[in-house]
Amino acid sequence: MYLEYYDYQQMGGTLDETAFDELEFEACAIIDYWTFNRLKNETEFPEAVKRCVYKLINLINNKIIAESVSIDNDNFSTTTTNPGIVSESNDGVSTTYNTLSAQEAVDTIKKETEDVVRMYLNGVKNSLGHKLLYRGIYPNE
DSSP 3-state assignment of 126? Predict the structure, then answer.
């Protein structure tokens, strides 16, 4: 567990503890994947790791919401989520909406997940001095 529930709440998290536990586990699995488990044996975690987990929890929760929108329909790719007004004109009363399919929302969230991990953990080292995102292998690993 890289982020405690109390710390999550202090950062502004609003999920209940049960939902937090499930999403925090998934967020840690994502981090472990990207870091080759370089945090598994740590007892103290850098602030960057905690903030990364917090952001990932929010993204995973958004992904679950986007996927749940598509469950109600047979056609996953045409289900829209959060249509917003892109442009309006006054005299001709023309309104253009931006629609995002549920699949596009999930793909966007996946890309954002990768971006969050790279942004927050870039240059961060574990207690052995190993960079978390280093794609090679250290001699004592």
Answer: coil
